[in-house]
Specification:
single chain, 419 residues, alpha/beta, UDP-n-acetylglucosamine1-carboxyvinyl-transferase, Chain, four-stranded mixed β-sheet, 31% helix, 26% strand, globular, binds uridine-diphosphate-N-acetylglucosamine
Length: 419
């Protein structure tokens, strides 16, 4: 079991290079098995969720090989097992993409229900409703989702709630359905565009990804492709907020600044200087006063829920009272008790966290209650006086590549210890 030990009050400075997007990678890898061929995906983040998919695919009979730390060769030309009930898949949320990918190519799938971060009910009813609309029969037998279809037929699908996972999963299945599928009220997150681009390189006909109407003209076969994953919007945001809270000056490289607009706008409101280039953003918080603000999480292009815990850490030392509203996940405030251990003054009323800025946070023992909560603990610890020990680092490792190395390179005093 690993812990991170952080001694705070060091201003971060220099540059950090952002890895490939976790949430794109965990969809692109399953999508690769839709071709009876070889796909190569690079710029994959070297994180636990990707390693978990690598193990799962190999267990399914797909020849999945690391060409280097960030590149996978995925050969699905031999027989592929469409029953996926191994322990690995239960650990991660994104295992649900195996349903859409297997259904598209083999018209059947049996996959264990997804795991992942526990912040409230995480239903997959919209995914299953979409598969049914395409003509599949779906049964949930205990923990296993079983799907069968004679054939899939394109349909008009309206999403009752904007869902990233359901949009991608229906897009995967519809890619190899007969005729045209239209997904309305689709999610617009950058990784939806990334998955659509990858599928189109494999021979799919998808238009409109990144808008709220996606049109998919079904094709019979997909072929292999080589694809580079986009940079991780949430990892980038995490380093931007970390730079800010320490009063430092950091350039976050290898990013798409447009993906960061909602965060850049809020950091500017707080009083931090943001300088955007083509593929970098410099965050300059040296000698700046931080003012409280209000933030509401929303689907893209709104403020991402996956940056909500990290920004809460920053708001906890902004002067005045900030209001943070979580609109996506009902239980995403479990980490607040941990922030309070560091001296943050926060009251939660339903979906709203009222954060009264304090002058400084103080080191303590805290736990990463989930992936992004863990990132928030690092951010808070970087600004706290004294030493903070962060437990349950396994959550952080699910989504951040070499987290302590990247922070150390920016001047943070952070060490991993095994207990
Ligand atoms: C993805 C991200 C996750 C992020 C979330 C919201 C991945 C692997 N994970 O999760 O990091 O926090 O988007 O940006 O990409 N919902 C339903 N029924 C469904 C599906 C979702 O009611 O079938 C609801 C959820 O309860 C939630 C909302 O829709 O309130 C959004 O969830 P969704 O966008 O589907 O999240 P994920 O794709 O699971």
């Amino acid at each position: 079991m690993d812990r991170l030990v952080v001694r705070g009050k060091k201003k971060l400075s220099g540059g950090v290079t952002i890895s490939g997007a976790k949430n794109a990678a965990v969809a692109v890898i399953p999508a690769a098995i839709m071709a009876n061929d070889v796909c190569i995906t690079d710029n994959l983040p070297c994180i636990e969720d990707v390693k978990c998919l690598y193990t799962t695919l190999n267990k399914m009979g797909v020849e999945c090989t690391y060409l280097d730390k960030h590149t996978l060769k995925i050969d699905s030309s031999k027989s592929v097992n469409t029953t996926v009930t191994f322990d690995e898949v239960r650990k991660m949320r994104a295992s649900y993409y195996l349903l859409g990918a297997l259904l598209a190519r083999f018209k059947r799938a049996k996959v264990a229900m997804p795991g992942g971060c526990n912040f409230g009910t995480r239903p997959i009813d919209l995914h299953l409703k979409g598969f049914r609309a395409l003509g599949a029969e779906v049964e949930v037998e205990g923990e296993i989702v079983c799907i069968n279809a004679q054939k899939l037929k394109g349909a008009g699908i309206y999403m009752d709630t904007v869902s990233v996972g359901a949009t991608i999963n229906i897009m995967l299945a519809a890619t190899m359905a007969e005729g045209v599928t239209t997904i309305e009220n689709a999610a617009k997150e950058p990784h939806i565009v990334d998955v659509a681009n990858f599928l189109n390189m494999m021979g799919a006909k998808i238009k409109g990804a990144g808008t709220d109407v996606i049109k998919i003209i079904g094709v019979e076969h997909l072929h292999g492709a080589e694809y580079t994953i986009i940079p991780d919007q949430i990892e980038a945001g995490t380093y931007m907020i970390a730079a800010a809270i320490t009063g430092g000056r950091v350039t976050v490289n290898n990013i798409i600044p447009k993906h960061m607009e909602s965060l850049s706008a809020k950091l500017t409101e707080i009083g931090i200087l943001i300088d955007e280039g083509d593929d970098f953003i410099t965050v300059d918080a040296v000698d700046r006063d931080f003012k409280a603000t209000s933030i509401r999480t929303m689907a893209y292009p709104g403020f991402p829920t996956d940056l909500q815990p990290q920004i809460a850490a920053l708001l906890s030392i902004c002067k005045g009272t900030s209001m943070l509203t979580e609109n996506v996940w009902e239980k995403r405030y479990q980490y607040i008790d941990e922030l309070k251990r560091l001296g943050a003054k926060i009251t939660v009323e339903g979906r709203v966290a009222i954060i009264e800025g304090v002058r400084e946070l103080t080191g303590a023992f805290v736990e990463a209650t989930d992936l992004r909560a863990g990132a928030a603990m690092i951010i808070a610890a970087l600004s706290a006086s004294g030493e903070t020990v962060i437990g349950e680092v396994k959550y952080i490792d699910r989504g951040y590549e070499e987290v302590e190395k990247k922070f150390s390179a920016l001047g943070a005093d952070i060490q991993r210890v095994s207990v």
